[in-house]
Amino acid sequence: MINPSSRARTHTYQFSGRTTQTPDEVLDAFAARRLPGIVVDERGPNHLVLRPQRHVRYGGDVAVVAGILIVFAVLILTAVTPVFIALLPLAVVPAIPPLLDHRPDIAMSAVEEERGGTRVTVHGQASPELAAVLDAYLGSLPRYVPVENEGAGANATQAQSPRPPATGF
Question: In terms of residue numbers, what domain contains 125?
Answer without folding.
Answer: 6-55+106-147
